[in-house]
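Handout, section B. The chain below has 282 residues.
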Amino acid sequence: MATLGVQMMMLKDKVAEQGMWPVLEQIAALDLVGLEVSQIPMDEENVAALERGIKELGLKVGALSVALKPGPVATGDNLTEHFDKVVADCRRLDCNYVRIGMMPFTAMASKQACEEWAAECEGWAQKLAAEGITLCYHNHHVDLAQFDGERIFDIVRRVAPSVNFEVDLHWVQRGGMNPLEMLEQYAGVCKIIHVKDFRVVPLPESAMGLLEEGKMAEFMQAFTNLAQFAEVGQGNMNWPKLLPAAIDAGAEWFFIEQDETYGRDPFDCIKDSREYLKGIGY
């Protein structure tokens, strides 16, 4: 059984407001064990609180976020400047995975750029592997875009065979691929799974007003933007089938994540997701 936890990106504002330790106590109170740390400073205060959470609350740090180098999508430590620190943090927190949350936008622009970036990933993955740490890459919908019939995700897999994957099932579905097929095709390298639902909301009254006014361009913009991130169990994804398939594919960690909570307190969203998952046996 994979360990269930939370992607702490959801709680970055809470950590900034309350501090890491109170947030960890609230996570533990929700009967969640695993932590993936992203978009939160890995300074001494926060690392010490995570270490304390492991010892006193029984929490486990499943993955830390990294980038290859500084840049617009690098929200924390990067391997070019902070490799030794990343390794030290992993050892201190008994963490065996680091993950790249997104490739640079420039790497998405062409097949050559993607291959060059993936080749850099391979070098760092081998260097991390020598320290007992596995590098994983997290997908978005753009990773299912194709160059010459090859998906970006598959380019990374081909060029960087030492890299494993963090499969975000919501983004797979949003990218137009059946998540069950993704899990089957990536069996053996799907170590971490992001668990968030895909919801399509009804047309808002404001859109109907645009229709009545004959503003078809504005109406169609609203019509084509009805997809939302959702609490697990509050969308259209088949979790009773997806989660066992993810375990069969080799998943060791399930992290609840919701990129946008639409005004709700993130702890309330996490609680709803946790209760649903408990109801189906997780």
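Note. The longest helix spans residues 111-129. Compare this with the example in section A.
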